[in-house]
Write a structure and sequence with these properties.
272 residues; Rossmann fold; 13% strand
């Protein structure tokens, strides 16, 4: 299914002034880190520790992924959050840094060991860029994209309309403009199962600018794209979705089964 991502450009001077004033501030605003409910650490007997590489989103750092990292660690995974230049650099430049970090992580694992990846927002595009352009793509068994603008960001598009200087300065926004997404050359390998999680709680200020269902930053239909192995929508906004226990459970379920759906218990037939 081909998704149409065109936005209306009929903006009044008042709206343009509002966007110009708020966009840089709100896009850089720090998100809250809700308290997490941790589960007891559990790892199946004789099951090797699985490495999961976590990638933060625009204008964030590795600390923003620590909540998800704790959920994963409590379930027996080895979670590694990386730091990337995802504010003033294009996605391709951040992906080059990511490639070096992944290479270092892989060098410390057995040659036969695979890893999984999970990225929030723009971090998901970095993961997809790695899968499309790095020869080690086949070491990645699963990837989960959380609130990732896979078809581009309408807000980045608006930012480009309002001020070319804005997207030139905050170069990551330039990469996120819908017309620039194809330039990333993204293609998903058959060897990697990829799932995407979108939010639809649009209570953030910028969400009111968007016309379609969104999480306050990214539209739901931009997260979904043809070729995904699974897709799910949860009732969270962009700055909280990757901190929530339910999201973590979905990530773990996908890593273990390749699906967000609960799997039937082979003994009872009920879904776990």
């Amino acid at each position: 299914m081909q998704l149409n991502f065109k936005q209306s450009r009929n903006k009044s001077p008042v709206i343009i002034l509002f966007i110009t004033a708020l966009l840089p501030v709100l896009l850089l605003a720090a998100c809250e880190n809700p308290a997490q409910n941790h589960t007891r650490q559990h790892r199946p007997e004789n099951s090797p520790e699985k490495t999961v590489i976590l990638v933060h989103g625009y204008a964030k750092d590795a600390d923003d992924m620590q909540g998800l990292a704790r959920f994963l660690k409590n379930r027996g995974y080895r979670a590694i959050a990386v730091d990337l230049p995802l504010t003033f650099d294009h996605v391709e430049e951040a992906a080059a840094v990511f490639e070096k970090q992944v290479k270092k992580i892989l060098s410390g694992l057995p040659d036969s060991a695979s890893v999984a990846m999970a990225g929030h927002s723009t971090g998901g595009l970095v993961i997809r860029y790695f899968l499309a352009h790095n020869p080690d793509f086949d070491r990645v068994s699963h990837a989960v994209l959380i609130a990732t603008p896979n078809q581009g960001s309408a807000l980045a598009d608006i930012a480009g309309d309002v001020s070319e200087l804005l997207v030139e300065t905050f170069a990551t926004l330039d990469s996120l403009q819908p017309e620039n997404i194809p330039k990333l050359g993204l293609s998903d390998p058959d060897e990697t199962r990829i799932g995407a999680i979108a939010g639809n709680k649009s209570t953030l200020a910028l969400g009111r600018i968007l016309e379609k269902e969104n999480d306050g930053r990214v539209e739901v239909e931009s997260v979904c794209y043809p070729g995904l192995d699974d897709f799910v929508v949860v009732p969270y906004h962009h700055n909280q979705i990757h901190h929530k226990k339910k999201t973590a459970e979905l990530v773990i379920r996908f890593l273990e089964t390749g699906s967000f759906e609960k799997q039937p218990d082979p003994n009872t037939g009920s879904k776990n």
